[in-house]
Amino acid sequence: MTEHTVRSFSQDLEELSGDLARMGGLAEDMLSDAIQSIASRDLVLAETVVSRDPQIDNLQVEVEKKILRLLALRQPLARDLRQVISALKIATELERVGDLAKSIAKRVKLVDKIGADGALKGVARMGRLVTAQLKRVLDAYTALETDAANKVWARDEEVDEHYQSLFREVVTYMIEDPRTISACAHLLFVAKNLERIGDHCTNIAEEIHFLVTGEQLPTERPKVDALNSN
Amino acid sequence: MSRMEPIVPQLRVETPRPSAAGPAVPPTKVAARSVSVFYGEKQALFDVSLDMPEKSVTALIGPSGCGKSTFLRSINRMNDTIPNCRVTGEILIDGQDVNARSVDPVLLRAQVGMVFQKPNPFPKSIFDNVAYGVRLHGLAGSRTEMQQIVESSLRKAGLWDEVKDRLNAPGMSLSGGQQQRLVIARAIAVSPEIILMDEPCSALDPIATAKVEELIDELKANYCIIIVTHSMAQAARVSQQTAFFHLGKLVETGPTETVFTNPRESRTQDYITGRFG
To answer: Minimal Cα distance from A83: which residue of B?
Structure first.
C-alpha cells in the first residue's frame, strides 16, 4: 500500500509489524526448541526455552503500549484500523504460544525417565505438525495472504485428530505399564498444550482474514472433539 | 402553514423490513438521479445518484474541489445564484423534482434549511434572527405564537438557556459556537424537513463542535440532515450514511460503519486513511 501523507504514521505501523515479526520469530523458535528438548530429553535446551519467555512477554507489553499510543494519536481508520486491532490480538495469541512452549519445556525433566519411547515419538510428530502450522500462519501474516491463512485455519482439524489419537496412544502405554503413568500424564499435558497452540494458530489465521478482507471467518471451524469421541 | 404541495405522486421507497442483514433503512427523503453540474464549460459534478434517507444523517466527504459542496448546494438550488451554473438530472424531495418550474426556490429553501461553514447571523437581535424567516413566510399568526416558535427553535438548537435573558442582544455578540447554533435555530424555525450543513464546525472549537454534533444527533430524530465535512472523525461520529466524492464523481456510498472500517473502493481507503497523493 502507498505511504501515508504523514510519513511518521507509516513508520509507526511498520514498527508495529516489526515487533509482531520479532514476537512470531521468538514464539516459533521457542516452540520448536521445546519440542526438540522433550523428544531428545535435552534439559539444557529446555532451560533456554524457559529463559526466553520473558522476552516475548516484554514485547507484548511494548506492542500494547504502542497500539494505545497509535489509537490515541493517529486515530487509524479502515485497513489501518484493522491492522492495529489485529496486531493487538495477534500479540496476545503469540504471548500465549510462548507460555505454552515454556510449559512444555518445563515438563522435560518430569518425563526424563519415561519408558515409552513410542509416546515420545507421537508427541514429537504432533509437535512438528503444530510447528509447521505456526510457521505457515506467521508467513501468511507477513505476506498478508488470506488464502494461506485460511489453509492453516482449515488444517487445525488435522491437529485435533492427532491430539485425539495421541491421547488414546498414551493412555494405552499407561495401561500397559503403570510405572510410566506419571511421565505419560505429563505427556498428555504436553499434547494438550500443542493442541492449544494449534488453536492459537487458527485464531491468528482468523485475524489475518479479518485484516485483509474486513470480514470475519465463520465462528464454526472444522473440529474433532477428543472428549466427545471417547 | 405554507408548504410546497407535491405535484407529482410521491415516490416514497417502502421501508424494508428488518432482516438478519441489518436494521431497516428509513425511507428516502432526498433522491439524486444522475445529477451533473456545470460551471460554464467546466463540469464540476458527474452523474451523481444518491438516496438520502429521512430521519438520518448523510455525510459527504472528499478532498477539496471534489464536488461535495456543489452537490449539497444543488439540493436547495443554491447553485441558481451562481451565473453560468447549469444543473442536469433530478433532485427529488419526496418524489418531487426541486428543479421543476412550479417550485418556488424561496419556499424550497424554507423546506431545505442550510447552515454554512462560517456562522452568518443577521445584524439583528437574537430574537429577530430566529423570527426573520418565520415572519417572511408568515408562519406565525400572533405575537404569542411568534414567541413560542422562537423559544422552541432556540430550545431545539440547545441555545435557549444561554440566551433567554438577552434575546434583544445582537446575534453577532454571541460566541462562534453560539452563533452557529443560532443559525441552526433560525433554520429550524421555519419547520424545514431537510437541513443541509456545509462544514458547520470547521470554525468552531472542540467544545462548540461537540455541542453542534450533539445537536445534529438530536435533530436527526425529526429531520433529514446532509452534512459536508472535512473531518473524517466527525463524519464517523455523526452520520449513518457516508458518501465519498472524488474529482466530481461519487466513488462510494454505504453505511458509515462500513465505509470507515471496510470500504470497498481503494480510493476511499486511501482518502480516509490519509494516503491520498
So the answer is: B261
d(CA B235, CA B68): 13
Q: Grid coordinates in use for B102?
A: 412550479
The conformation of residue B102, written as its DSSP 8-state character, comes to T
Instruction: Point out the residue among B236, B268, B274 whose CB comes nearest to the CB of A9.
Output: B274
3-class SS at A194? helix
Lowest model confidence (mean pLDDT) among A51-55, A143-147, B2-6, B32-36: B2-6
Q: What is the mean pLDDT of residues B247-259?
A: 95
What is the pLDDT, as a whole number, of residue A119?
83
ipTM of the complex: 0.72
The two beta strands, B42-53 and B28-39, are antiparallel
**Tens-digit pLDDT profile for residues B35-81:** 999 999 999 999 999 999 999 999 999 999 899 999 999 999 998 88
Which pLDDT score, from 0 to 100, does residue A227 have? 52
**The domain A7-229: what is its CATH number?**
1.20.58.220
- Domains assigned to chain B: 28-272 (3.40.50.300)
Residues of chain B positioned with their CB less than 8 A from the CB of A1: 275
A75 lies within 8 A of chain B by CB: yes
Q: Measured between CB atoms, does A219 come within 8 Å of chain B?
A: no
DSSP class of residue B78 equals G
- Kindly provide the residue ranges of all beta strands, DSSP E only, lying in chain B, ordered along the sequence: 28-39, 42-53, 57-61, 85-93, 96-97, 112-115, 194-198, 224-228, 241-246, 249-255
B260 close to A (CB below 8 A)? yes
* pLDDT band at B205; cut points 50, 70, 90: confident
- Please state, in angstroms and rounded to a whole number, the distance separating the CA atoms of residues B265 and B177: 36
Q: In chain A, which residues have their Cβ closer than 8 Å to the Cβ of B270? A: 2
Domain range annotation of chain A: 7-229
